[in-house]
Automatic annotation (TrEMBL):
PROSITE patterns: KINESIN_MOTOR_1, KINESIN_MOTOR_2. This is Kinesin-like protein. InterPro entries: Kinesin-like_fam, Kinesin_motor_CS, Kinesin_motor_dom, Kinesin_motor_dom_sf, P-loop_NTPase. It is found in: Cytoplasm. Keywords: ATP-binding, Coiled coil, Cytoplasm, Microtubule, Motor protein, Nucleotide-binding. Residues 45-405 form the Kinesin motor domain.
Amino acid sequence: MVGATVALNDSPPPPQLSPRAAAAASAEPNPSAPSSGLDIPTPTSIEVLIRVRPLLSHESDEDTRNASSCISTLADNRTISINHPSKQLQCEYDWSFPQSSSQEEIYDKVNSCVNSFTNGFNATIFAYGQTGSGKTHTMFGPEGYAVQRSTYGGPNHAILNANAGVIPRSIVQIFKNLHRKDLGIVNVTAYVSFVQVYNEQLFDMLRDPRRSSSLEIHEEPGQGIYVSGLSEYAVRNAGDCLALVKLGEENRAIRETHMNTASSRSHSLFQIIVEQTRIEDGAEGERVLKSKFNLVDLAGSEKWDTRKERKFNNDQISELTNINLSLYTLGRCIAALAKNGKALEKDPDAIPVHVPYRESKLTRLLQDSLGGNSKTVLIATLSPASDCLEESVSTLRFADRAHSVMTFVKLNEKRPVDHALVQRLQSEVARLRALLRDGGSVNEADISGLTTAPSTSLAASPDSSSSNEALQKAMERITFLENDNNALRKRLGMPELPPSGLGGVSSQQAGTPQRHTPSKFAIVGGGNSDDANRLRTDGASGEMGSGAAGQHLIEMRASHEKLSALMMDIDRVTSRFFTFEIEEEELKDVVTKFMKAFRKEKKGYLDLYARADRDGCGIPVRGSPNFAGKVPRGGGGAKVTKLNSPMAGPPTTFKKENSSPFGSSSPDRTSVFGTANRGGKVLGLSGAVNAAGSVGVAYRIREKGDKSKGRGPSTVSPKKRGKNFNANPLNNSVDGWIQDDEDDEEKLRKELKAAKARMKKQMEMQDWLEKKEEKALQQLEEEENARNKRGSWRSTTRS
Ligand SMILES: Nc1ncnc2c1ncn2[C@@H]1O[C@H](COP(=O)(O)OP(=O)(O)OP(=O)(O)O)[C@@H](O)[C@H]1O
């Protein structure tokens, strides 16, 4: 359990909050801080909140369950206390909510996660707990929680009732944030999707109420994990979003069980993706942020009760088995991730154990949230009833493990190339070249305005040796600018320019105590392309000038190229794994090999930087006072912008249909600002409402590969999408096609037959699962022991 835990009875001694976890928790990125450096993943532990709901009347009813309340929270708001004749236990988490907690109090504790999301970080909030323990109540609100939608659809018109849960509250906060004037947001688009995992199959909750077309999960480099075929609705305001939540809830698989009159039989994932462009005061150029927010309401775990077995029909058996199976896999993933976190803490080169994400749809869907790039909060819900004690302890154990899991949070930022800056750098290089050719000296004023370049003083001096020194520095500076310029050109997709040669001198020339003239430079490089090529070749073989910076840059460039090649190799082999061309073992072997080479090369690269720094080349290096937080690339201290970020987005395009029944089809209606304001000023909010009074929300569909299509709902063919597909999610009546009853009956009969055939197996599986869980945990222990003995292999906890 987190922090100090007092074990009162038979519970094992509590693990303390690890130093690494504590450090990581304090190292959590500050979303409102300037972006620089936040694209470096920050290890952050999953935040664990526990909520104990009140005892319900049917639980305490003497004629039915006659249960008493045996779980409470202590005044420190962290400790959960179990007080039952068979078990006494106290354990501490990040926060524990007492039975009397309001929905608002719960939300207040996750609000920072919502703010992180709107500031460009991926975030996840998920509710876990026994069936009937209050997950849906916490995430959505109790049945009938009223959310008023505005006719105008502005964020402040979405009025929540006090019972509204985390999801509706988050939505309102998200749109409030996106409309803040001080964040420099000039354009923003928000997409919403809602998917459920029912019987190990994925269904679109917004367009497939009858669960007729199951969807597949895919992963592609640069895009992460996504559900192919899932509709993503472009929402303009909180009102749109809340209407979709409500619709999705209506389409969720629920059933009355002995524990809950409306028990969710599927795991649901409500996802919001926000793509925003910001232009901040005083910042160079615009930033594009793209972040994902996952709000997950899991189906509840439930023990197989043999006394009630007879009352279960085939569907129930199938649901229960699948729910338990996926939660069991979730538990194993959490256990493996927790082990990896602890092992890495002890030994950074520890070999991670396998995390079985692929063994269930749920864990595959949540892979990023559990061990990837996401700030994650777990809300574990408990019933205080004495007859739920066993399940409650099991939930607490799960929560405890979850807290040891590290995710790696980073800002999902893309800084589009600033063409003006490139132009300025190019003309700066040209100007410096001209100055040198004319035999003039270069002084500080000549290079003003280039804040990212090395700040070498180039004051002119009548003394020939110091002027030679100044010249040397000027040449180093030119090399720097040329490299920087080429790095920018590369990002623009433009061909690299050959080195002019002005930035490098031979050892002989460097030692010449005379002012360099244009003709001298012509000997080295002279700006003509042949010479430039020669220079590059010479440089690569180490003959290029003895100017320290020139030499360092050549070596660093070579090292950088090797590192890039290794990264590409790793990327290639990983892609092959995801396309099932190679097995996990092979992946591990190859990656181990590459990582070894990579580490070695990286060390050399950092050493080069250190040497360069020592030699006074003005290149910031880790540990030196001028290091800004990351190793510069492209041969200098210029600010590095990560273009190859995972925010490349799904392979989708957005298309609007003129004939859309969703009201206006103006091209701006997908923007939260509702205006054609890309890069311009915000003109206001769009609040198009169609004649029927339902807000029109267009959507796009994620497809595998790059054949994505955006569609207007009116163009979707019922046959293509399945006959029960609801084409218009916000129209309450299912518009479209008429059911073919006979076909359905036949289909149902077949399904029933198949379910019967599976039933026996599933019941056996139930027993087998419990045994397997024990075995898996034992195996993890063994693996950890073996790993401690074995050599070193460093990796992340990602599977
Ligand atoms: N904090 C709470 N205060 C009052 N009632 C609550 C609270 N939490 C849950 N309940 C009530 O308990 C019952 C079960 O809650 P809920 O449906 O949210 O459970 P669940 O964990 O989502 O169950 P399942 O996994 O079966 O879907 C509901 O009637 C709900 O209104």
